Amino acid sequence: MPTFDLRLRRSELLIYAACAVLVVVLGWRVLARDGSAPAGSHAAAGASSSAPAVSVSAPSAAARRAVVHVVGAVREPGVYRVNDGTRVEDTIERAGGATARADLSAINLAAKVADGQQVVVPRRGAVAATSAPGTGAAGSPGGGAPINLNSATAEQLDTLDGVGPSTATKILEYRTAHGGFSSIEDLAQIPGIGPKRLESLRRQVTV
User: Fewer Cβ atoms within 10 A, N terminus or C terminus of the chain?
Assistant: First the structure.
C-alpha cells in the first residue's frame, strides 16, 4: 500500500510538471505575440502621424500672351492675341487661314511667334523673277518692280546692288527666323548692311 501511494505521487508530480512546462511555453508565446503587436502598431501610428497629408496639386501659371499682327495672304488679317510661343502655322489659322494665293513655302511655319511680332504671309508671284527685256535687273534703280523681301528667292536678292550670295542667304535666314520683314528698316539687322547700303536698297526692295 505505501508503494502504491508513492507511485501515485510520482505520476501526479510528472503530470504537474508537464502542465507547468506547457503553461510556461504557452505563456511565453502569448507574451511574445502580444509584445510584438504594440511595437508594430506604435510604429505604424508613428509613421502615419509623422507624415502629414500634403496636397501636391498646385495652381498652374497662366500662359503668357503675345500680341501679333498677321498680314498678307490671309483671309482675316489683323491683330491677334495668342499664347507666347505659338507656331506661325497656328497663328495663320487664327487669322482665318492662308488664301489660295499664299506662298507658304516662303515662310517658316514651324517658327514660334513672340509678342509684338508681325507675321507676313507673302503672295505667290507677287514679284517677277526676271526683269523685262531691255531693262536692268529686277528691282534695280533703272529696272523693273522692286523686289519683295518676303517672297524673293536667293537669286533675286543676289541681283540687288551690294548684295552678294552671302548677304542674300543672311536675308533669307532672317526672314525665316522672324516670320518675314515688317519694314525695309529691318534690313539694318542683317550683318553687312550698313546705313549707306540700306539707303541704296530702299529704292530696290519692298515688303
Answer: N
